UniProtKB/TrEMBL annotation:
It holds the Pfam family hAT-like_RNase-H. Keywords: DNA-binding, Metal-binding, Nucleus, Zinc, Zinc-finger. GO terms for cellular component: nucleus. One of its GO terms (molecular function) is protein dimerization activity. This is Zinc finger BED domain-containing protein RICESLEEPER 2-like. It is found in: Nucleus. PANTHER family: ZINC FINGER BED DOMAIN-CONTAINING PROTEIN 39, ZINC FINGER BED DOMAIN-CONTAINING PROTEIN 4.
Length: 544
């Protein structure tokens, strides 16, 4: 490091630019606004650039709000120009005390066929207010962004309060005929959350066994002599595992799964240890180990599925159908287990799963159909296993919905509006407006589209389903495929853009295995709500 003084001479310093750079740094990295008042920071800046006028936390707060307003306008203009619909996810965050915030995030496929998301709002919610008021808050956010007409779906966690909130918003949008398929695809529940709910059922059923194993591991690790004796017994009974036994972090269910799975490999050693150590009284029974081995199978599936759901920040909706169907099949098998302990646990988990499946199975199936590696074949593979003789009828029901959804997209297609556009120009001199004529003839447009397809020309949907499946490979990108094939399937690609952008899961990978909500840090929790929203949203937009 050079210690000599640098002569800056007559160089000009842009105070405003430097101040905004400081504010952007604070937003981007989540630093506390009060850092500008810290003595160490002020000394550092003064030595680095004596000409820079140091600012107060209140000044930097105003700069952050100004940056937020400018960035918000950019996002607003971008959302307005999107070629497709927007899906929304809602997530509740905990804050200091009993405070809660609602985070609204927009998900969409942009003009370059890239799946993107933007945090639109981060607003405080009052636990005492009614669900009707919560739905009004969300509707006002939608209208503030002017996206109520562009909304395709809304993803919430499972729960009765979510049912009421989403139901009210759905009714409002349905009255204005903004929703496709009469809103059948609008209400989406987070797939990762329903898996987490089933995991919590399993943890509750295993609470006594889990406690015994935690205490057993603590006992083994309580002294070097006991640890050495345990290792010796493990070798005698033929334990091949070299894993180090560790107590779990109860707030992370994957950590609990790892602890239980590793302990299961040492079950014979634990059983022998109680013969030598009189003070060791927490050894699980043979029945405990037997039941644990069955439930660990459930955990293993849930871990694998959750890893799939969170392996990427941008996961398209086609990924979820086979994973959810595998859970469905396993639940059916677990319910048949002769051990009432296991079957009753499976029945409890299935109640939560069935609530999810009833709401989301259509959207999952349509998304899978829009994967050229699967099309209708994935439904034809899974549905007979799930429904037996009723499968054919249910597949036909899904296909009717697919055709209806396709026809609704064909009405709004630029291709189908070319002739309409010419007609509006021709009728410009008449007494009625083009908008009124269009509204009255929407039914005719649908009729014309359906009848013309029946008179020789095949629809995009027909051509797509008749062609061979695309080979399965690891590096396949479904959005790239639709980008390349848009000229061949112009209407179906519009439908794919909207469906594949639905957030079937809204949980970030870093919190996928958490038990409980995401938590706002204490520094942000202490700020007034408009500033919190400005910092959270601006950070998301600037990172992009």
């Amino acid at each position: 490091m050079k210690e000599d003084t640098v002569n800056i001479g007559n160089n000009n310093l842009d105070q405003r630019r430097s101040r905004y750079d400081l504010a952007r740094m604070i937003i981007l990295h989540g630093y506390p606004l009060t850092m500008v008042d810290h003595v160490g920071f002020r000394v550092f800046v003064k030595n680095l650039q004596p000409l820079f006028e140091l600012v107060t936390s209140s000044r930097i707060e105003a700069d952050c709000m100004e940056i937020y307003a400018k960035e918000k306008q950019k996002v607003y203009e971008m959302l307005d120009k999107l070629p497709g619909k927007i899906s929304l996810s809602a997530d509740v965050w905990a804050a200091s005390g009993d405070s809660k915030y609602l985070c609204l995030t927009a998900h969409y496929v942009d003009e370059d066929w890239q799946l993107k998301k933007k945090t639109l709002n981060f607003i405080p919610i009052d636990p005492s207010q009614t669900e009707d008021m919560d739905s009004e808050v969300i509707m006002s956010c939608l209208m503030d962004w002017d996206i109520d007409r562009k909304l395709f779906s809304l993803t919430f966690d499972s729960g009765n309060s979510s049912d009421n909130i989403v139901g009210r918003i759905k009714d409002r949008l349905s009255q204005n005929r903004f929703l496709y398929l009469n809103g059948q695809l609008f209400d989406v529940r987070c797939a990762t959350h329903v898996v987490s709910l089933m995991v919590q059922d399993a943890l509750e059923a295993l609470c006594e066994v889990t406690l015994k194993i935690r205490e057993s591991i603590r006992y083994v690790r309580s002294s070097l002599s006991i640890q050495a004796k345990f290792n010796e017994l493990a070798l005698q009974v033929g334990v091949e595992s070299q894993k180090c036994l560790c107590v779990d972090n109860p707030s992370q269910w994957k950590s609990t799964y790892s602890m239980l799975k590793d302990a299961l490999e040492y079950k014979e050693a634990f059983s022998r240890l109680q013969e030598y150590e009189q003070d060791y009284k927490m050894c699980p029974s043979d029945l405990d180990w037997e039941r644990l081995s069955v439930v660990i199978g459930c955990f293993k599936l849930f871990v694998e599925v959750t890893n799939v759901f969170t392996r990427s920040k941008y996961l398209t909706a086609n990924i979820y159908f086979p994973e959810i169907c595998d859970i469905h099949l396993q639940l059916i098998e677990w319910c048949k287990n002769p051990d009432e302990y296991v079957s009753s646990l499976a029945a409890k988990m299935r109640i939560k799963f069935d609530e999810y499946w009833d709401k989301c199975n259509l959207g999952l199936a349509v998304a899978a159909m829009l994967d050229p590696r699967f099309k209708m074949k994935l439904m034809e593979y899974y549905y007979p296993q799930l429904y037996g003789s009723s499968a054919t009828e249910l597949i036909d029901d899904v296909f009717v919905c697919i055709k209806t959804l396709y026809n609704e997209h064909s009405i709004g297609s630029p291709l189908s509006s070319i002739d309409q556009g010419l007609a509006w120009q021709v009728s410009g001199s008449s007494g009625s407006s083009g908008k009124e004529s269009r509204d009255r003839l929407m039914g005719f447009d649908k009729f014309l589209n359906e009848t013309s397809q029946g008179q020789g020309s095949k629809s995009d949907l027909d051509k797509y389903l008749e062609e061979p499946l695309f080979p399965r490979n690891v590096d396949f990108n479904v959005l790239n495929w639709w980008k390349v094939h848009t000229p061949r399937y112009p209407i179906l690609s519009m439908m794919a853009r909207n469906i594949l952008g639905i957030p079937m899961s809204k949980v970030e990978s870093e919190s996928a295995f958490n038990i409980g909500r995401r938590v706002l840090d204490n520094d942000r929790s202490s700020l007034h709500p408009p500033l919190v929203q400005a910092l959270i949203c601006s950070q998301d937009w600037m990172r992009e």
